[in-house]
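>> received
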Amino acid sequence: MQEFKITFTDHDKSVAVPHGTDLLSAATKAGIILNASCGGEGTCGKCLVNITSGKIKTDSSRFINIPGREKGIVLACQTIVESDLVVEIPKESVATHEHMSHWAEDFAKGVILQREGLFKPVPIINKIYLELSKPTVDDNTSDMDRIIDALKIRVNGLRLSTRLANLKHLSEVLRESDFKVTAVIAYKEGAMEILSFEPGDTTAISFAFAFDIGTTTVVGQLIDLVSGAILGTRIAFNKQSVYGADVITRIVFADEPGGMEKLNSAILDNINEIIEDLINLCKINAGNVYAVVASGNMTMMHLLLKIDPAEIRKAPYVPTLSAFPTMNAREVGINISPKGIATFIPGVSTYIGGDIVSGILACGLAENEELTLLIDIGTNGEIVLGNREWMMGSAASAGPAFEGSGLSCGMKAVSGAIQKVAIDPNMDVRFETIAGSPPKGICGSGYIDLLCQMLKRGAISKDGKINRDTGSRRIRKSENNYEFVVAFAPETGIGRDIVIQDDDIENIKRSKAAIYSAIIAILNKVGKNISEVKKIYIAGGFGNYLNIENSIFIGLLPDVGRNVYEFIGNSSLAGARMSVRSRDALDVTNEIYRNITYLDLSSEAGYMDEYMAALFFPHTDIGRFPSVRL
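>> returned
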C-alpha cells in the first residue's frame, strides 16, 4: 500500500502513513495527542490543524461552529491523507502535558495524610534474605523444601507457591550464591507467591508503582518499598482521549475494527512512559520494580486488560468482572520486572469502579461512625453515602463538561486555563489562569466561577439563558447562540475571543443537575436528609480548584455548612499507594467492594423528577438553597 510522509513542522516530527489515513491518527502515530473529545466524530471542533503543503480530502460540512476558519485550517479527524503533507498544529489543538505538576501537592492531604500511617507497613512485595544450611549426606532435603522450611517462620503461615520457571535454575542459583539468597515474595489474594530468587542479600532494593488510571489523566508514583517513601510522581493526559472524552465514546470505539488495540496501546503507552521516566529520573533498574497497584473505573480496567467492555453500556450493564485477579505485569504489557505483578483495586459495578473503592479506603468512609458522603467529580460523577455499617453508591451521567470537554472554549486544567473569574457591576471581567499564563480557554472550576458571577450580575437567568438586554458589549449574537465574552482576543494567548455560549451553559447545567440529583436520590433511597451528613469529602482532580461557595450558588453541591466539606485530592491514587505499602490496606479494599450496594439511578423512581427540578440555577426549589440570594 502506498505511504505518504506527514511532517508536523512545529513539533519537528515526521511519520509515514498509508493512503487514506486520517490526520488525527497520523498525529497520534507521531506521538502528538490532539484534543478530540468527540472521539473523531468531527463534532467538537477541537483538533484544528493547518495544511501548508500537500493534497487532502476533507468533509467541509463538519466545519459548523468553527469561528474565523481560514483557508488551510481543517479538522484533523475529518481530513484524509492523499499525498505527502506539511502540517502546522495550533497550540490550543494539542492535549499538552505542561504544568501538570501543580497537582502534586494535592495527592496527599487532610484525612488521607492522617490515615496513611494507620496501616501496618508490610508491603505487598516482601524480600526475605536466607542463609541456608548446605545439603549433606545426613541432610538431603530438596532445595525447594529447604527454602520453604526457612520461609514458613517468616511469612505468618500463609500458603507459599512459586512457578516452574523459578525452579528450573534454582539449583544453580543456590550453589553459585553459596546458599545465600533473597526470596522475592508477593502477596496475592491471601496467599504468598515466590516471584524469584536473587543471589545474595538484595533486601535493601525493592520498588513498586501506584497508579490512578483516570478517564482524563493517568497518574503514577514510584514508591521505595523499604522506606515507604514516594520517590516521584508523574501525571499525563490519558492518550485514549484522542478516541473520545468519555467512557461511552471509548466503548463504542473499542467495537470498531482495530479500536480495542488502539485503546489498549494508548493506555499502556501512558503507564510505561511514566514508569520509564521515573526509573530513569531515580536511576533505578526496572528489574527491581516488582509490583504495580492500579485503581480506575471499570471501563479503564477493561481496556487496560484488553477485555471487551461492550456489555458495560448495554442493559443490564454488567462488566465482565469487577474483582480482578493479580497478574504477571508483563502479561498485561507493563514494563517492570519480568517476574513482577500487577494488582488492581476491585470495583463494585459498571459505574462504581476501583477508583471509588480506593477513595473509600483513603478517606476512611467505611470505618466512620457518622454518616459520610464521598463525591468524586471527574469525567463521571460518582457518589457513595454511608458509614461503617452500610454504604450505597451511585454514578451520575454528568458527562465531561467539568473536565472542559464539549464546550466551545473548554479545556483541561493545565497552563493557560482560566480557573477563577470575577465580574463587577459594569460587567468587567477579572480572571486568573493556571500558572499565570495568557488564557487559552476555561477549565471546569473556571466555568463554575463564571456561571456564579454571571448569575449575580444578571448576565444569565435562572434557566441558564444569556440575558440579551444588559447592554454590555460582552454579550452578543453568534452563529447559533448568544455568547458572553470572558476575554477579548488581545488579552488571550490564542489570538481570539474566549467566550461562553448558551449551549455551553446548557451542558454545564445538565452536568451539575446530574450530580446534585444523584446525591439527593441516594439520600432519599435510605431515608436520610442532607442535614444528617456530618462530612462530605470532595475527591478528584477537579476538586483541586473547586470553589465550594460558588458550587453551592449554582446548585452543584448541597447547601450545608461549609465546614462539612473537605477536599481530599486524588483519593484513587492515595488508596492505590496505601495498598502498595500495606497488604492490610489491600485486604480492606476487598471488604469495601463487597459491602457497597449499588443504586441504579436509571431505574430509580423519582430520580428523573429530581433531575428535572435541578435544571435551574440553583434549583426550582430555592428553599433547598437558603444561603443563595438572587
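>> Residues 502-525 form the longest helix (24 residues).
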